Each structure stands twice: as C-alpha cells, then as structure tokens.
Amino acid sequence: MKIYLDSANLEALKTYPVIEGVTTNPSIMVKAGIKDYSAFAKNILSVIGNMPISFEVFADEFAEMEKQAMVIKSWGGNAYVKIPIVNTKGESSLHLIRRLLDQGLKINITALLTEEHINKLCEILKPEDVVIVSIFAGRIADTGVDPVPTMKRAVEKYKNLLKAEILWASCREVLNVTQAREAGCHIITAPEDIIKKLSMSGKDLNEITLDTVKTFYKDATTAGFKL
Question: What is the pTM of this model?
C-alpha cells in the first residue's frame, strides 16, 4: 500500500521520504495561505519530481470544471485531476468524469462516502481508465459507522479494473494505516501529523508508557506546580 501526503506544505514534501505521492485540495491550500493556485502547483511539481499528485478543480458548473481539468492536465503526466463525485447542488459528476477519461486524463474521484457513490462510479469505468477512487473513510467513521467493511467491498468491486486504485481518505490516526492495508486499499493519504506518528508503529508500549510519564513529570516540574 502506498502512502501519500495530504498537504500544501512544500517543506513537508522534502521531509518525509516515506511518501510516494501527494494529494491536496482547496481547503488545505487556503489553510496553508496559498493565494495563487497555478503558481503553487508549479512550485510543488518542481519539488516532487515524478511522484503522482492530485489537484482539485474548484468550479461548480461542469463546463467550467472541464476547462479547469484541462489546465491541470497540462501541468504534467503525473498530475491527477480531482473531481468531486457531485457538485454543490448534489448533481452527479459521472458524465463529466467519463468524458475526461475518454480524453485520456488521469482522474482522482473525490468525496465518495456512500455505497451508491462507489457502485455508480464503478459502472461507468473501463479497464483502461487510470483512476484513483478516494473514499472518505475518516468521515464515514465520524458518523459512528465502521468504514472498514465499505473499503473492503470497494476493493473487491473494483478488482477487475486493474488501473483503478482505492484510496483511504480523511485519515484520522495511525491505526487507519493498518486498517487500510488490511482492507486491501492501494493508497492511504494522510496529513503531516499522522506521517510523523508512523515512526511509532511497532514501538514497545512499555517504552511509550515511560516516555509519557517522563513528559508529565517534566512539564509539572517546569511549571513549578506545588501541592
């Protein structure tokens, strides 16, 4: 399973050798203070080399989405175009996705949460389509529903589409990396704080206990607490 960094932080891209690709979106870019979308994209492409990266369209009308998709495609062969499964009106993007795929674009279909999303997308895909299917497992979990069965069903459903990759999106904790791998996902995308915590994977729990107690002791001592 490949690990992608979900970020708009150029310095982070130079920091984590574990990553094999990058995803970003308008919300992440706004939080990072990005003002010029195209300039940022060209900057990040110069940093990541040939790694795959997904840039999202931000139009809401399908005709304008298509124009933006063609601009993103022009940025390089490693650029995937992120298209949301629906627009803000709840209208399906499947017709646009099919049209873009027929023009040879690499598409990252994003914001999938329901079985209906997963099933209907699968119905329009062809074996030659290069797609990433971004299922927001973390947001499914936020509703109190275990996303693992959904991810397993998606992996099984898409298994004959050899150029389609199932991506676990909205990663919330390191456990999700294990869950995604066990579900058979091809990719998980994670923010910087989760990538940092991957160094704890397999660490002895007794050692973590000791580190935790030392931290509590140090902070209490530094604060000068007294009883």
Answer: 0.92
Any idea where the domains of the chain sit in the sequence? 2-201
Is it true that domain 2-201 has CATH number 3.90.1580.10? no
Residues 6+ apart with CB under 8 A from 134: 23, 82, 108, 109, 110, 111, 112, 167, 169, 189
Counts of helices then strands in the chain (DSSP H, E): 11, 8
pLDDT tens-digit readout, 165-192:
999 999 999 999 999 999 999 999 999 9
Residue 211: CB partners within 8 Å, gap ≥ 6?
A: none
Average pLDDT of 23-49? Answer: 93
Q: What Å distances lie between residue 169 and 25, 95, 102, 172, 212, CA to CA?
A: 12, 23, 25, 9, 29
